[in-house]
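Let's do one together. I've listed all components of the complex below, 457 residues spread over two lines.
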Amino acid sequence: MAQKPSIPKGTRDFLPIEVARRTYIFDTIKHSFKKFGFAPIETPSFELSSTLMGKYGEEGDRLIFRILNSGDKMLKADLQALEDKNLARFANSLAEKALRYDLTVPFARFVVQHQNDLSFPFKRYQIQPVWRADRPQHGRYQEFFQCDADVVGSDSLIYEVDFVFLFDEILSNLQLPSFTIKINNRKILSGIAEVSGESDKLIDITVAIDKLDKIGEEGVIKELTEKGLSTEAIAKIQPLFSFSGTNEEKMDKMKEFLATSEIGQKGLEELQFVFDQVNDLGLQKAELEFDITLARGLNYYTGAIFEVKANGVKMGSICGGGRYDDLTGLFGMKGMSGVGISFGADRIYDVLTELELFPKETDQGLTLMFVNFGEKEQAYCMKLVKATRDNGIDSELYPTAAKMQKQMKYANDRKVQYVAIVGEAEMAENLIQLKNMETGEQAEMSIEEVIVHLNRV
RNA sequence: GUGGUUGUAGCUCAGCUGGUUAGAGCACUAGAUUGUGGUUCUAGGGGUCGUCGGUUCGAACCCGAUCUUCCACCCCA
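Okay, and this is what the predicted structure of the assembly comes out as:
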């Protein structure tokens, strides 16, 4: 019985042309990561549940794919927990492993586990898929690639500056015409909560403020009220809702607003350092914007928070990142500040597709295909193919002596760049008809000339 | 996880208030064209109408469940 083939929701197959384009993105990112001093590592696609659970907040836990225990391990299910309706505990007893949700937490685990083999500050990059049990939507997949660069073991702010330049360089190299790097600092958000007198409601406040441009001032006030903030507290925060101006103007206003908050002032100082450095050195295409409503990101961030938006397309953030002071502390290693960023390769792919920004070269197929005219010609061409391959030219021979039209159409569909036509006449003269499939131009030349010619393109 | 939406040929979609053998374009195969593709012409192959169940004399069409798509929320790359 023929089964209708399909794949799980939120996942995709990739055709050769798509892989070529994705490779272009990955290579561009890798190139700059390496240039900035990051070395690649890899970690398993699944981790122990206990490594991941509880690191991303309640929402995050819900989105982690669990891996059901197999075989006799199923017998370890904690039925008592089920009876007690302790679903979290019951689930943990059923699934000891889980697919990684991001690359940062596994990296923290990695650093703690291999601390004796690493020199700090340790800089690594990592390009691997992650999985989230989220509802698929535009630009949201259940399986997608993250491209992370992190440095752990230093609280120096020069890394924040470096990451701004990494965003700028990579996205500029990908020819993205316009994008905005939004930056904020968790300490500023803490300062806001402190000034309002509701420090314990930091998360609620930041989540609500984050939605400002979506639900408006009234919506934010409504949400804050629902979360139990006092009218006075809301009144104190309210001036932030009509916040605008240049980065400098915003900084000045915030310095005033957070005058009484030590932690808030610290956040502003950190931010100021980044702005000063970036202004000194200059960006290519990026626009750096201080956005106090930028609050999202994982709740383990403690300092800088980054998010990058591609302008002119309907797409969520294409990159994110931030500083986390105590992530390794969760695995028993204190005093290791880390900071890192992540490129959402799949979203970048969607943006580049929509804006038609992939270079033409990524769509090119095989360099050279020989037409097959029959037994004698086939044997002769096999030698020529070996010669071109030995000289580093991607090449092949059509497998049968099908009609020329069919062979040409096949070459055309595969986006073959050149076709070599070698029949009786050419064999007699020791020549090859080389046809450029794009221009249609055709020229007769020796195999040596073909090799020289194609190695040049 | 909440609310809504979608599913007909490989692809994009028609298919009237339920009524014989479910259509088109593109793609595919063959021929017009025995050594020249991305243009034409002709013919042909291909569909358990997402899946399972129900209502009905009769279901692609109505009802239920489930999966999937897309959208809003939650959250996020």
